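Board notes, transcribed. Complex of a protein with glutamine.
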Amino acid sequence: MSLVNQSIVQANSGLKAKKFSALELTEACLREIEGHNSRINAYVTVTKKDALESARQVDKKIASGESIGMLEGIPMAIKDIINVQGIRTTCGSPGLRDFVSPYDATVVSKLKHAGMVLLGKTNCDEFACGSSTEHSCFGPTRNPRDETRVAGGSSGGSAAAVAKNMAFYALGTDTGGSIREPASFCGIPGLKVTYGRVSRFGVTAMASSWDTVGHFARTVEDLAHVLKEIAGHDVYDSTTSQVKVPDYTALLTGSVSGLRIGVPKEYFEGAIDPEVKETVWRAIRQLETMGALVQEISLPMTRYAVALYYILTPAELSANLARFDGIRFGSKPTNEADDLVDYYFKQRAQGFGDEIKRRIMIGTYVLSAGYYDAYYSKAQKVRTKIIQEFDEAFKEVDVICSPVAPMPAFKIGEKTQDPLAMYLADAMTIPINTAGIPALAVPCGETKSGLPIGLQIMGPQFEEGRVLLVGDALEKRIKA
Ligand code: GLN
């Protein structure tokens, strides 16, 4: 094992035992970034000087004999829609290339307090809209396992950074699959938390009733350690919950004995890659041999999830993006405008990429008088039905397992001309955000050509501990 491909837990014990310093750890990650980032394009901003300085501070603390926390001195990365004071937040958008954040997001202040070493900000689809990190003004992120393929999206830069040993863990956001899908494509674990579990203060809003902040790491146990630091109520985000934050690592008992696993048949039907189906089933059978009780369930409303998502989230997005008008936020048009309307035409044309323009048009359409009832309010009702369906299912089973995505990582450019094909990559992750429940993506095998495949483990609201327990047990079994 090299310095850079350890888990957080291993790196922490190495730091404590003075086997290496935080500075050495950070320099090793920076060397990986220097060696790979020009091809992989995981980072859009590298904060080398600050990273080295934070590492030195931790080393001083260790040298003085003080004890250190789990995340202290551990190099990490942050998706570029999350604000870090004094560093630019571009959201992958041409209109925000030079926007420097005047304040820290709550997750960032929490991690600063926990002693993070920030290596930089990672590439993402513009305003987190996409499944491949191809809709970024910085160009696509490449999949470390096969550089002709996408890393997934929209948090593709964060996933690739962790998978390529350019960071130990990374923050992302998940509105419809943006942590789980790239985690699955890059072969690492990634957690989407319950809506309201982690503060979104200081995180650029995509669709406010769906957005969640979560993270990637190299092991499920590491995910649990990071979650402990970032979860909890925040006075600056009124959607955060008062539900107590448990000690997630203490919940990783390794035992799935007697645990009831529901397998929804709808997630294995339709256009699903046969290798994905087979590998995911093998993982579920493995959990069964470990003592879990597997039963088939049915979630028939699942088939409406993608359709309602592409009504409700563009509606919210179109409202949220109104502030990027070049007056409040975002750049002004380069050419002179004749009047205010002309100003907006020019500003919007230059400030946003094609996918964002498409979604603003859909969003304003479904909210407009005459269409609101037919689309927006109908979709809200279907959303309630999906929530109820999950509530019912969790009366019968403890967790639900499915594939993360219907296919492994696809080729760069393969779906950019076909938005609907791109949207369907999230068919299995979107229902989870619709219901606001937590779900973990954990690697469970590979295709014959070596592309990673992820298992999705869903739990009831605020049961992150339960999905982490199942993922951790499976991960350890697979690695054993
Ligand atoms: N791929 C989905 C979309 O484009 C999900 C995005 C996300 O989770 N941020 O909307």
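The two ends are 16 Å apart (CA to CA). The first strand starts at residue 43 and ends at 46.
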